[in-house]
Amino acid sequence: MTLAPTFIDYTKKWYVMAAVGMGVFLATIDGSIVNIALPTLVEDFGAEFSTVQWVVLAYLLTVTTLMLSVGRLADMIGKKTPYTWGFIIFTIGSVLCGLSWSVHALIIFRILQAIGAAMVMALGMAIVTEAFPPGERGKALGISGSLVSVGIVVGPTLGGILIQALSWHWIFFVNLPIGIIGTWMVIRFVPSIRPAGGQKFDVWGGLIFFATLLMFLLALTLGQQIGFAAWPVLALLGISLILGIVFIYIEMRTRDPMLDLRIFRDRHFSVSMTTALITFICIAGATFLMPFYLENVLGYDPRQVGFLLAVVPIVLGIAAPISGGLSDRFGTRPIAVIGLTLLAVGYAALRTLTTQTTALGFILRFLAVGLGMGVFQSPNNSAIMGSAPRERLGVISGTLAISRTMGQTTGIALLSSIWVNRIIALSGGSRSDVTGAPAGIQVDALQYTFTLVTILILIALGLGIWVWISERKIKSQTPEASPRAASFE
């Protein structure tokens, strides 16, 4: 398939970045701003926490399961229309969430809001990739990554201020002005690039993929509550595996597949996606476990914990655009390898946390993680998006977004399970009282968990070095060659 000839006006690139940035910021901030409101929602609605949790879970499940289908649809009809409608749906959903009269109404409206968020999150990087010339792609994607970090930092703080000064309803109403301005900017500045017609939407592939991810995410969610050895969790994982095999079978035999599996034949692309997933798993799990250590072991209050944890997104936000610009100049692989090396150093340093670690000691250790993630993410995203043919940018952007949300969900479930089971093994206690275990045991479990995390990052670093060497060999043998994956076709 080829695209219809299209002239791209690069003079509007920063307006496009601003429009996409608003969408990225909204979707990110809304993922973190609601968490701080959960205790308030329990009290206001008089609902059980297990029910209120679905305010977060319904959003996450919907976003993750829809992004690939959105990306594929955008590759068929163009990216501007679904992105614009994503902004509109998200904004309407936000207002309805703020007007919710019961927890069940809020959950339903969160699903609507998540449909819009999926359309925005799946296509943001694809639109930025098209809007900027190849020589500035890394810097552009780095800035986009910084906005994610800003959203993560601002979300809990802004949420706390709004809840205390007004009410929880305003954590949703605050999206309205940004949504209106962002929608106007998308309509005004994002170019309408129409692909060639004649394609069919892979309905069965989309449905099977949706069901596969849904079963897997439900298994992870339920596993955190009842244990991963429980039969309902194992059954969901088994169903997910079977559906995944069916999905591969369908995609290999469909003329216009939802996800063209040939893209994974390119080892550069596959390694970039694998290392991205590994880093998301590690950062999500680490960020989830740190409050338990800071509060239960070191005795900091929640506000102090918030300031200490902000070091990662702040450093990440500063480093991402810088590393993106460096990758445009020196290449994506060497900068990504440097980022993975910093991550390995950071996680290895976290293995040395003790019951006596000072705030400065914690910050210096965790700072290396944020710096490594910031240095790695921009060039790696640039490598992924740069290796994608233009007619598949939507699907690749959606796939990369899925790797982020899947990594976050898997990381929290996997690393928290390792930490909990280690505490149980050392203390002989039960799953319900792990946070009450002696501080020394909690720290031992944390050190054990970060040992495994360090090993995971070292595996990612090894893969990154291997691909870097491979690309250098290709360039030396064929000076005109490019790591761009022509083998996708």
Question: Could you explain how this protein is built, in words?
Answer:
- The protein has 489 residues and is mainly alpha-helical.
- The chain folds into three domains: 192 residues, MFS general substrate transporter like domains (Growth Hormone, Chain: A, Up-down Bundle), CATH 1.20.1250.20; 54 residues; 215 residues, Up-down Bundle (Growth Hormone, Chain: A).
- Helices cover 78% and strands 0% of the residues.
- It has 18 helices and no strands.
- The longest helix is centred in the last third of the chain and has 39 residues.
- The relative contact order is 0.13.
- The N terminus and C terminus are likely disordered.
Please describe the structure with a list of short key phrases separated by commas or semicolons.
489 residues, mainly alpha, Growth Hormone, Chain: A, 3 domains, 18 helices, disordered N terminus
Q: What is the secondary structure topology, with strand pairs?
A:
Blueprint: H1 13-33, H2 38-45, H3 49-52, H4 54-77, H5 80-98, H6 103-131, H7 137-165, H8 170-173, H9 175-189, H10 203-226, H11 231-252, H12 267-297, H13 302-309, H14 311-330, H15 332-350, H16 359-386, H17 393-427, H18 439-477
Helix pairs in contact: 1-6, 1-7, 1-9, 4-5, 4-6, 4-10, 4-17, 5-6, 5-9, 6-17, 7-14, 7-16, 10-11, 10-17, 12-13, 12-16, 12-17, 12-18, 14-15, 14-16, 15-16, 15-18, 17-18
CATH-defined superfamily of the largest domain: MFS general substrate transporter like domains
Rounded Rg: 22 Å
Q: Based on DSSP secondary structure assignment, what is the total number of beta strands?
A: 0
The major β-sheet equals: none
Structural class: mainly alpha
CATH class of the largest domain: Mainly Alpha
What is the string of helix and strand elements?
HHHHHHHHHHHHHHHHHH
- Please name the CATH architecture of the largest domain: Up-down Bundle
